[in-house]
Amino acid sequence: MIIVKTKEEIELMRESALVVSKTLGLIAKEVKPGVTTLQLDKMAEEFIREQGAIPGFLGLYDFPNTLCMSPNSQVVHGIPNKEPLIEGDIISIDCGAIKNGFYGDHAYTFAIGKIAPETEKLLQVTKESLYVGIREFKLNNRVGDVGYAIQQYCESYGYGVVRELVGHGLGRKMHEDPEMPNYGKRGRGKKFIEGMVVAIEPMINMGTHRIKQHKDGWTITTQDNKPSAHFEHDVALVNGKPELLSTFAYVYDALGIESDEEAEFRQHELIL
Ligand code: MG
Ligand code: MG
After folding, report:
1. 33-55 pLDDT, tens per residue?
2. Which residues lie near ion ligand 1 (Cβ < 5 Å)?
3. Does the residue 254 lie in any domain?
4. Angle at which helices 7-30 and 37-50 pack, to 10 degrees?
5. Model pTM score
6. Contact 80, 41 (CB under 8 A)
7. Structurally, how many domains does the chain consist of?
8. What is the CATH number of the domain that holds 32?
C-alpha cells in the first residue's frame, strides 16, 4: 500500500533529505587517497547526530554502520573497513538518516583521484539515468515507466542494470511501497499519485547485470568484477510533477563542480 504524505510531511521529509545531502557533502571533502571508509563512517555518524538526526542504516536489518561503502566492483551494502582508498578507485556511498521520524536516503559514487575514462563514463551515464528516471515520476505514469526509461538509457551504453536491488517508497519506514525497479515495461505497475515519496536509485554495472552476495551477508559485487555505480535521490510527487527533496549541491560545492542538472525538478528555490 502506498502511503501518501501531506504537504507538511513532505516538508519534514525535505529536512531528512537535507541531512543526508549535507552528510554526503561533508564526506565529499574527505574522500581521497589514504582515508579509510571506517574514518568516513565515523565522521558521517557524528555529523548526522549533530544535526539532531539518527543514522538510518545503523542497526537497520542489523547493518553495523552509518554508511554503506561499496568500492569498485561492489554494487551496494559494502561495510566500512580500515583499508585506505587508493587513487583510481571509485566508491559508492549510500547514506540514510531519520529526522522528525522520517527517513532520508541518498547515494553518490565518488572518484578517488584520477580514474579510468571508461569508469568516468559509467559514473556519468548512471547519474544521467537517475534524472531520466525521475523525469518519468509524474502523475498517472506508472512504476514501469521509470524503470523502462532507466533501463533503456543504460543498456544503450552496453551497461548492465541490476535486477535484484531496487528503489522504493520512502517515509516513516526506509522501505515502503512501491518497489521501484531500474528496469521494466512502459505502462506497467502501480500508478503514481500526488503526495507519494520515493527513492530512485539506479545501480548500474559496466559489464553484466549479474551480481553475487558475499559471505558477510551484506556486500553485493558484480559477478564479472567490473565496476558498478549508484546514485540515489529522494523525490516527492507535488503538483503532478517530480520535486527533488535531496540535492547533490553540497557534494558539488565540495568538489568544485558547476551543475544545473537539478533545476528542472525544483518547484521553488533551493535554500542551502
Ligand atoms: Mg540508499
Ligand atoms: Mg534507497
Report:
1. 999 999 999 999 999 999 999 99
2. 94, 105, 107, 232
3. yes
4. 140
5. 0.97
6. yes
7. 1
8. 3.90.230.10
Q: Nearest 5°: CA angle at 155, between 207 and 70? A: 45
Q: Ligand 2 mean position to 147 CA, how many Å?
A: 15
Q: How far is the CA of 38 from the centre of ligand 2 (A)?
A: 21
Could you tell me the residue range of the domain that residue 29 belongs to?
7-265
The sign of the dihedral angle between the CA atoms of 272, 245, 220, 186 is negative
Average pLDDT over residues 4-33: 98
Does any domain span residue 154? yes
Q: Is the pLDDT of residue 57 over 80?
A: yes
Cα 20 to ligand 2 centroid, rounded to whole Å: 12
Quote the pLDDT of residue 204. 98
Q: Are 86 and 112 in contact (CB under 8 A)?
A: yes
48-86 b/e (C-beta count within 10 Å ≥ 16 → b): beebebbbbbbeeeebebbbbbbbbbbbbbbbbeeeebe
42, with CB counted inside 10 A (0-12, 13-18, 19+), is middle
Average pLDDT over residues 89-118: 98
Asked whether residue 270 is domain-assigned, the answer is no
Q: What is the DSSP string of 169-238?
A: E-SSSSSEEEEE-SS--TT-SPBP-TT-EEEE--EEESS-S-EEE-TTSS-EEETT---EEE-BEEEEEE
Rounded distance from Cα 221 to ligand 1 centre (Å): 16
Does residue 2 lie in a domain region? no
pLDDT greater than 80 at residue 269: no
Do residues 45 and 19 make contact, with C-beta atoms less than 8 angstroms apart?
no
Question: By the 8 A CB rule, do 187 and 144 touch?
Answer: yes
